[in-house]
Batch of 4 targets.
Target 1
Amino acid sequence: MRTGSKSLLIVPAEGLRCLTSAITRVCRRGPSETTAAKKLRGRLDSATRSLSRSMDVVTLAFSTSTRLRAMILSRIEVMGGGGILLAAILCGAATAAATAAAPGAATQAAAPRMGLVSLITAVAAIVAIGLVVWRRWYRLSNTAWVRPVSTALGLGLFIGMFVLGSLGVTVARGMVLGDASLDEITNLPLADHARILMGHAIGQSLAAVIYFWLCRTGAGRARPTGRAAVAKGLLAMIVVWPIVAGTSMVTSSIARLIQGGPVDVIAHDTLARLAESPMGPWLVVMSIQVVLVAPLLEEVLYRGILQRTLTSLDLGRWTGIIITSVIFVSMHVGAARWHALPALFVLSLGFGWVYERTGRLAAPIAMHITFNALNLALALLSTPA
């Protein structure tokens, strides 16, 4: 055996001691570190499961709260809409009952009835305004439904419709009156008055035909038909009617204070003329013109042509609606009492609003027809047989 071997230099006892110490260190270190890692992983898994359960609970609670909130808001909206509808019906019924009283009836006997009308009208108007503000229905999207038209084309159609209407009145007046003055129109029989209005309608219809032709050939997208638009117009009328009635109630009260006496229940000359006329074929003809023909032509003129042209000038959609409404009201000065003009302005805002929201002329036409029909019915009921 060589003396230079390294293994011969190690003392047996010392080698045994080193081996035992190394084994001890390995045994102590290994299991300790493994156990700590397992405990750490266990704690992490437990925390993860606990957090997951907590998130599941929060998600379930949030989704339940969202569904509950949506259900509550939906019920409130339905109740609000139903309340407006009921209030509008009651308002119309109460107004009809109040206006049906004979002119010679005592004021004290009619006071409770008018008080009920005022109360119902005020409640309906407040509910309608609150629903419009709460649901933010007054907001209009940045993208218009209606395709813009050129300013020259819009103004040309607007002026042309006025010119053709005046030409139709001139021709009809010449056929009916001959050389009589224009002031005699107000004292004409109902048949002659209806013929003159027919001439005006025929003249404006020529420009309306051009408008509808442009809509069909691609110069515009405001299609004048559509069941959905008619339904939306009728629903919008339920909301707008109480606001218009509330405005009329306030301005009528102001007029009574200024005049120191009662104001005319029928605030439009044509409605007053129809209410005073006996039943006959010409009354039916005039009623058709008031309820159907006038709304169609006026909405083509003001909403379809004028408002559409103004909104094409980048003035803002509400600016176009307001300017159109001012012109709409100014055209009724003289035919309507001054205290009825603010209500007409609010009504015109409603027409313009529903036109911008739907992009269809059928919506404001449906509203206008409904409004004129209700007013004609109230005017006929207000006159004793």
Target 2
Amino acid sequence: MQKYPRVFRIKSTTKQLIKITSAINDLNNSDFVEKIIQETELSNIDFSSYNNYGKKSYNTVQATYTISYSSNEKIEAVAQKHGLTRSQVLNLFLSKYLNIPIDHKD
């Protein structure tokens, strides 16, 4: 399976949580993010939570994860369908999977 590097904007605390949790699970960061994307059920996500918030944020850090074509397509399709950025979609997935509250300033 071919993988592609993708750049996302996420909170620094979330980035650290990914780093710690992936180490605990003996995975690299990209493999852990890939797992989150693949296992997240779209029916469990409230995409409307970003409706009243802008797409720009300066309260985030850049994170590059190498993900599969199918994971990239999943994120792109959801972003386009709901009028969100790829980073907002990933943040919603991470929030759901890691059970952390979403802060709409991301």
Target 3
Amino acid sequence: AQKGMSDLLRNACAEAKEGNSTIKQQVRDIGNKFLNSVEISAQEAVYIILQLPMRKSSRNVVFINTSPPNDRVELLKPLSEIEKMSNESEEIHSGGLLKRYVERPDSLKNITLADWAAWYDSSGLNKYTKSVKKSDIDINNDDDLGVQN
């Protein structure tokens, strides 16, 4: 089944390139060819048609890029900000999670990277305050109640 889909997409790419259409139209054509050829379950089709979420989570997920520094992909600062910088400046990358962690205040030096990513947010006016969300509090936790059978 996978080989059949690969051949189908390869042929769709070739057909799209032969046409006199824009890149946007080529991508649309390839996507339509794929969507019209994929078999999905009735349940998945209903979720797609009704635009229901395929998954739910009470937790946020934060990706921490722990690749070696030379292998990390970083976002560039906006062009308007780069144009305002001096010609000698080489800081064209916007600061990410790891940069903010390294530059955290002395009062937070004992915080691990995982705790930093999970609990501390440097955005907004109130910098570096620990966030507590309602979903982080388990109201059904009866571990401390001493319930015995």
Target 4
Amino acid sequence: LNQYSPIMYIDNETLDGIILDGQKWTQLNRMPGGLIIHDVDTSDDDLILTLVEKPKYGIIQRLPRMSSINGIIDELDLIEEAWDIEEMKAGDDLQALAELSIAGSIGGPKTIKTLDRGDLFTKRQITTGRIHYVYTSSYQEHYITDSCVIRLTDGQYTTDPITLRFRIRRVDGINGGLAQSSLPYLPITNLQPLRPLEYPETKSSNYID
């Protein structure tokens, strides 16, 4: 039963937003200045955010899915796994991929995905460290301000869009987004192990993560 609307706002400890001083990337919920989301009757996996406006000087990226600390695959990842299968079927069919995006696909686990306007992600992906702002422009000695606009829904109630700001200086982002090898907290051993998928009508030996 969904009786209450979600709440999303920006931490007001600072008016500058999230500060990146000599740092190329940040999680969207980093404090001070980051994103705060609450919903008393909706799970994090069902709180869906839409990227309404992209940053001007950087990008929003979604990192690959990771295993839990004990290596067990979380049951909530089954939803993403279903999308993975559909995206694999779609391949390079732009129309099919567009339909998946409209339906709510949030991408497969194997790649670092740059989110475009209208792309979706979940609160759970934020809290598990998979959604980042990455500065991709030239070196700036003095602060410049970047921002993105985000909207939140729990499936029944939708918030007004809000603007999340970033202040960046003393970092060269010209080389683009993140790579797995550049993330100290995401060693390759933390990626989900390959495992077989079994379908009700047939058994498959194809492996995906």
